[in-house]
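User: Earlier you gave me the apo prediction for this protein. Now I'd like the version with coenzyme A bound, so I can compare the two side by side. Same sequence as before, with the ligand SMILES added.
Assistant: Got it. Here's the input I'm using:
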Amino acid sequence: MGAVIVRAPVAADRAALLEALERCGAFSALEVEIAIGMIDEALAGDYSVVGVEVDGVLRGYTLLGRATLTERSWYLYWICVHPAYERRGLAQALQRAADDLVQAAGGDKIVLETSGRSGYARSRAFYERAGFAETGRIRDFYAAGDDCIIYCKTLPT
Ligand SMILES: CC(C)(COP(=O)(O)OP(=O)(O)OC[C@H]1O[C@@H](n2cnc3c(N)ncnc32)[C@H](O)[C@@H]1OP(=O)(O)O)[C@@H](O)C(=O)NCCC(=O)NCCS
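And here is the structure of the complex with coenzyme A:
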């Protein structure tokens, strides 16, 4: 694997990020549509987004935003790495950058929701490795048998 650069995505990276979303195998067509829409909003400044580039092409990103009406909490809305580049530490690099971004903005908590379905096992393994802990679970939230798991990570202040 070539040089890894963590940087802010620009409009020219949109196609590469769409490819990562479509190919990662985790998201339905509707989820991909929502995710790319949020990337467009982030490029317009409505969310924070961090990308990871390998050999000149963005191969993953994470997208966050302040939790409205909280003092220091942020939501992590999306993280995705292109399947050809999985298990090489790219998501860890993204998470470190996201933690730094939140801390630099005065935040100290990152919260996310994910599915309890077996297809999301790698995501949960990643979050737990990245320092998130399960803080809540809503049974049958997405559908019967598909729980919503709430993860939270508290950053050092
Ligand atoms: C989850 C995801 C972002 C992880 O990206 P990644 O770049 O492969 O992750 P990393 O290489 O940084 O892995 C860091 C750690 O997470 C855990 N992990 C990551 N992928 C895993 C897998 N498939 N199985 C088990 N543990 C996994 C491991 O502890 C890993 O450390 P290790 O490789 O030293 O054992 C990636 O698999 C992905 O994009 N999945 C599809 C999209 C998705 O589900 N996003 C989250 C919901 S929005």
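For your comparison, keep in mind: The chain has a mean pLDDT of 96.
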